[in-house]
Amino acid sequence: MATVGWVDSTALAAEWWDAPQEPELSALLQTSYDVCLAYAPALAEGAPVPSAWKLAQKLQAKHLYARDKSGNKESIGPDGYAVSTFPLVLEARQLLRPRVSPWSQVL
Question: Residue ranges per domain, the chain?
Answer without folding.
Answer: 3-98
